[in-house]
Amino acid sequence: MTETDFIPKPYSKHIKSGDFKWSSPSNIALVKYWGKKKDQIPENPSISFTLDYCKTTTKLSFSEKENKADFSFDVFLDNEKKDDFKPKIETFFKRVERYLPFLKNYHFKIETSNSFPHSSGIASSASGMSALALCLMSIEKELVHDDLEINFTQKASFLARLGSGSACRSLEGDLVVWGEHVDVYGSSDLFGVKYPFEVHENFKNYQDTILLVDKGEKQVSSTVGHNLMHGHPFAGQRFEQANKNLTDIKSILKSGDLDAFIGLVESEALTLHAMMMTSMPYFILMKPNTLQIINKIWAFRESTGSKVCFTLDAGANVHVLYPENEAGSVLKFIKSELVTFCQKGEYINDKVGFGAKLL
Ligand code: PMV
User: Fold this and answer.
1) Cα–Cα distance, 19 to 104 (Å, whole number)
2) Mind giving me the DSSP string for 266-313?
3) Which end of the chain lies in a sparser environment, N or C, as judged by fewer CB atoms within 10 Å?
4) pLDDT single digits (tens) 210-245
5) Which of 267, 165, 132, 282 is nearest to 220 (CA)?
6) Any atom of ligand 1 within 6 Å of the Cβ of 266
7) 162 φ, ψ (degrees, to nearest 5)
8) CA dist 88 → 103, 149, 223 (Å)
C-alpha cells in the first residue's frame, strides 16, 4: 500500500448534511514510538494495548456551504467552544485534504468529550484524532454509496496517523502494531494493524491503572520530542532496539512469559525517558513521585512475587500493568501504597479494550 491508494475515486453521491458519532479509546504503548520522519512516518515500529475506559466521544455534524475556498469548522469540548483546538484541527485538515476531497464542501461542528478529566495529564490526541478520523470516514462511506474501494478501518487509521502518530493504534484492539516490521505480517508505516498472532491467556483482559502523578500541561510537546531524535547520538541504536523488542514481544505474547514481559515493557519505558534525558536540549518528564512509585512497584514485586509492572508515556503519570488474576491484590497495594504519590490521590482504573465504536 502507498499513500496514493488512499485517494478516493470521484464521489458518486451528493449529501447536503448529516452527522456521525464515534467513540474511540486511548492506547498505551508497550514498545514505544519515539522519533518520526516526514509525514508522520515512524522511525521504528511500535505495539500498544488498546484501552477500554479512557476514550473520546465525538459527534461530527456537517452541512453543505456556498464558499468552498476554505475549511470551516467549530469545535466544542463538553459543550464549550474551544477555539484553541482549531489550529491543530486546521493542520490535520490540511494534511488529509488530499485523501478526503470533500472537506472544503461542508461546514463542520465537532462536539467532543473525554471519559477522563481533561486536566489529567492524559493525552487526548490519540483518542480524539482517531474519533474524528472515523467520523470523517463515515461521511466518505456515504459519499461513495457504501462502495469504499479501501478498508474503512485501515483508511481511518491512516488518517488518524496524520493527526497524531499514535492515534493510528486506537481503532481496534486488543493489541495493535504500527510500523513496518519483518516479523509482523501486514504491518505498515502508514496505519496500525490488529496484532495478527496468538496471544496467551495471561495477557487477556490485562489491567492498567493510571496513576495521575502530574495533571499539568505537557512540558514538551510530542512533536518537539520526536524531532529531538533527529541527530540524537543514540537514535540508530534505539530504533534497532525497538525492532528487536517487537520481535521479542511476539514470542512473549505467545508463551505468556510474564517475567520477560515485565523486563521488556519496563526497559522500553525507561529507554523512552532516557532518550529525552540524552537529547539536546535535554529534559526530564518524570517527577520525584514517578520514581517513588517505580521503586514501590519493584519492592512489592520482590516481596510478593507479583507480576505487576509499570510503563510510562511522555509524562510523569505511571501506567501500572498487571494480569487480571492479580486485580484484587494489586488494587489493594495501589490504594495502600501508591495513591499517596498521585496528585489529589487521583487514579484511573482501566484495562485492555477492543477499539472504537459507532454510536
Ligand atoms: O502520537 P504522539 O506524536 O503524541 O507520540 C506518542 C509517543 C509516546 O506516547 C511517548 C509513545 C507511543 O508509542 O505512544
Assistant:
1) 16
2) HHHHHHHHHHHHTSSS------HHHHHHHHHHHHHHHHH----EEEE-
3) C
4) 999 987 777 788 889 999 999 999 999 999 999 999
5) 282
6) no
7) -75, -15
8) 15, 29, 12
C-alpha 327/C-alpha 330 separation (Å) is: 5
- Joined grid coordinates for residue 187: 504491518
| C-alpha cell read off for 45 | 515500529
* 151 SS3 class: coil
Residue nearest to atom 6 of ligand 1 (CA): 166
Q: How many CB atoms lie within 10 A of CB 317?
A: 27
The total number of residues written for the chain in this structure: 359
Q: How confident is the model at residue 284 (pLDDT cuts 50, 70, 90)?
A: very high
Q: What are 181's three cell numbers?
A: 516490521
* 66 alpha carbon – ligand 1 mean position (Å): 38
Residue recorded with cell 512516518: 41
Residues 245 and 45: their CA atoms lie apart, in Å, by 10
**C-alpha–C-alpha distance, residues 108 and 103, integer Å:** 9
As a whole number, mean pLDDT of residues 152-161 equals 98
313 lines ligand 1 (CB under 6 A): yes
